[in-house]
Amino acid sequence: MYSEKATARLLDNMGTAVLVFDADMQLRYLNQAGEVMFAHSARHACGRSVRELVRNSDVLADQLLATIASEEMMSHRGCLLELPDAPDLRVNCIFTFITDDNGQPCVLVELRQIDYHLRIEQEEHLITQQQATHVVNRPVLHPHYHSRMVSPDCELPFSAPSCSSMYLRPGRLVMVTLRCC
Fold it and tell me: Quick one: 58 and 99 in the same domain?
């Protein structure tokens, strides 16, 4: 059996935000992932209502009440959370009915951000574009040389009046060959 401290350590090391709301929809617990997600410390957030924590709290409030009424686990996918002090998030939610030490009904809420991987992919794409632009714009040709580019679609070279060293083709970077004048 885990002690209360050990359980808190486990919850704090999870990547999923874990929140516990009581029957009055007041936040009673928030783990470290939840602190990051909501941009509030647990000390600051606990005791606040779901309506104070989330601007569009109607869906969450309805799910909390339905979970308490049914005493069963429920889920909601693709829920948009409009947070007052952090960027909006799209999350999958799991609502689990629990009771506190006094037997009072509570709801344990797990929030997993689903747009996180999409944001990472978008940022990686932007970095790749910036790196390619940096390579293309960097001058590497001597003024006494002219460039000769090779088309990636065929092996026949074609002349180009430009002195750029590389050019971008959709989805690929093409190197330019140099030749003396």
Answer: yes
Question: How many angstroms from the chain centroid is the CA of residue 38?
Answer: 13
Q: What is the dihedral of CA 87, 47, 8, 64, to 10 degrees?
A: -70
Q: Please, how many CA atoms are within 13 Å of residue 134, restricted to the half-sphere of its CB? A: 6
Q: Is 83 exposed, middle or buried (0-12, 13-18, 19+ CB in 10 A)?
A: middle
CB atoms within 10 A of CB 67: 23
Residues 18 and 100 both lie in one domain: yes
Range of the domain at 62: 4-118
155 within domain boundaries? yes
92 and 9 co-located in one domain: yes
User: Rounded CA gap, 57 and 51, in Å?
Assistant: 5
Q: What is the pLDDT along the chain (181 residues), one digit of tens a residue?
A: 667 777 777 887 888 999 999 999 999 999 999 999 888 899 999 999 999 999 998 989 999 999 999 999 999 998 999 988 888 889 999 999 999 989 999 999 999 988 766 667 767 777 887 777 766 555 554 444 444 444 444 444 444 444 444 444 455 555 554 444 4
